[in-house]
Prior knowledge:
By secondary structure, this protein is mainly α. It has helices at 2-12, 17-24, 28-35, 43-52, 57-65, 71-76. The protein is built from six helices and no strands.
Amino acid sequence: MGLRLLKSKRVLKGLTQEAIATKIGINTKSYNMKENAKNRFSLEEAAKISQYLDLNLEEVNDIFLHIKLPKSNIERG
């Protein structure tokens, strides 16, 4: 699901790519390329986006990290 989830979360919050780009300190074209998987988000950008969109740990992992976390680690958090 990954970046499709990012887009859907952004749209549900009523935010444009331009708005998120401004919030994280990059230009809209750079954000667009990252949201469309042509470039990767930095950890700092991912942290800011997750805060603005109120993403939970599982969503952050799915969107930005793409690793399989054991359920027990998620439940402890």
